[in-house]
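Extended Data, panel c. Modelled sequence:
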Amino acid sequence: MAGHPLNVGIITYHAAYNYGSVLQAYATQAKLAGMGHNVTMIDYRSEEGERYYRNLYFRGQGLKSTLADMTMLPVAGKRKSRMERFERFIHENMRLSQNQYHEPEELDELADAFDVVVSGSDQIINKHSNELERVDWKYMDPYLLAWAHCRKISYASSPATMTDEELERIGPSLVRFDALSARELSACKRLERVSGRHVEHVCDPTLLLTGDEWMKHVPAGKTIGETPYLLFYSLLRPKRAAGVFKQLKELSQRIGMRIAVLTPMAGNVPNCRELVNVLDAGPEEFVSLMSHAQAVLTDSYHGTLFSINFHKPFWVYTEGTKEHELGTRRGQILQALGLTDRIITDFSEIRVEEAGSKDCTIDYSTADSALSTMRDRSVTYLDSALHMHE
């Protein structure tokens, strides 16, 4: 890579107990360190973020949320183990700043600490994310780098569900960045409109590392103890869970394979021979479950990305129409990689011979070529943005 080593700070949702958040943060750090830079993950944890992720129950989000939390009481032990595994992964694998920060103004002490600060990825500029929904707009300032006196660049940040009117509020802050990028093409256009600046389209950080690189970086955690298995990774809520678990049981019987069930929002999986509850998986175990799975069924964005990176037979399940799915962030990456045929609306669409095949039945050659181009373009953006104005 061009240029000399820089002191680079990263600020993102590195400590959310969410596989995508923590693994994208780790991947950004790994890629920048691999490019020869001295990297620090700024250990900023807002009080709201801490309250949301560290409290297993009663997080003050209303009756609906409290009732959903109550359904998770039987799996409190697994949830606690999961939390501990997240913290262990964060502390053992991230190069954290010496101090931990909780309020935006505390970051002022880092104003001159770096040559460059990278803001992102994840939904750090989405006012409706768990960390920002119920607090003042000033809590987005750390991610908009209001405190930094150095070069400022964004990497793959997503405004997600922000309205255009809400985006207007952060337009002036975006203008002060030296380089801007977003992970969804639709987000690039929206951010360009409010900032008047070019916004580069880049890949999610988890795709900056190849499947082989992931296996080198993250030691193989525990799997469910026996193979083969199909991994079901979903963000479904308790209300829908009973019906979905029933369908999974039927799917398991049909394909003749156990199903490892990873549903962080609805962890009360029925105790039966067909389904194995792996709710206590941390980030390391998640990567391992993905890499060792015979096949993957998911409705998650990062579940989709890891399935592709590990060349798994996979299906992306949607409760809407296939046409609607194409407009989602999952749908956008599937379109970009020529894999839209992986979208299903019913578990019955999963063919036994495809789920149980020892060899992947998906021809990944086109997807690999498109992904390689995407990855190269993203690394080029990072490299030129880091050394801009030198």
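Residues 200 and 381 are 8 Å apart (CA to CA). This feature is highlighted in the accompanying rendering.
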